[in-house]
Design brief:
Blueprint lengths: L13 E2 L4 H4 E5 L7 E5 L7 E5 L3 E3 L1 H9 L6 E3 L5 E3 L25 E5 L5 E5 L8 E2 L5 H7 L2
Parallel strand pairs: 1-4
Antiparallel strand pairs: 2-3, 3-10, 4-9, 5-7, 6-7, 8-9
């Protein structure tokens, strides 16, 4: 017997039931000098999970070494204190740019970095994203403080 009130205790996320390669693609970002960007080949709806982050899990000591080598642009801080480094991992999520970072762009972030129901780091739509649009999400102020040009 299920109790419908249990859904009030957490935010359920919607997952797109297809491989990411079927609905996401990489091409030059619309933001000047931002490199590659993440785009959708389907309509994505608010609160849908767009893409999971994948990468090597490293500790803070290894993260510090990579940061000194300026190889820390694809770091994600994990809840357990470790770092996920997506630099050398095939991962669509890492191509989502921050439209509201340091550069002045005409775009707004339409997604957020968060956790899915299984505590995987992911990008989730914060509003509807139409077919062909670029996916943008905030990297946070600490990222821009360190990587500001």
């Amino acid at each position: 017997m299920s109790d419908s009130n249990t859904e009030d205790h957490y935010t359920s996320t919607n997952t797109i039931e297809a491989p990411e390669s079927d609905y996401l693609f990489i091409q030059p970002s619309q933001i000047k000098n931002a490199g590659k960007g993440l785009f959708t080949a389907i309509d994505i709806y608010e609160d849908e999970i767009i893409s999971l982050f994948k990468g090597e899990i490293i500790d803070n000591k290894e993260a510090a070494i990579r940061a000194q080598q300026n190889k820390d642009r694809y770091f994600i801080n994990l809840l357990d204190g470790n770092i996920m480094d997506s630099m050398y991992t095939d991962c669509y999520a890492k191509y989502a740019n921050d439209a509201e970072g340091l550069s002045q762009s005409n775009f707004k972030n339409n997604a957020a970095i968060t956790l899915d129901d299984d505590n995987n780091v992911c990008i989730k739509a914060i509003k509807d994203i139409e077919y062909g649009e670029e996916v943008f999400c905030s990297y946070g102020k600490p990222y821009w403080k360190k990587h500001g040009e």
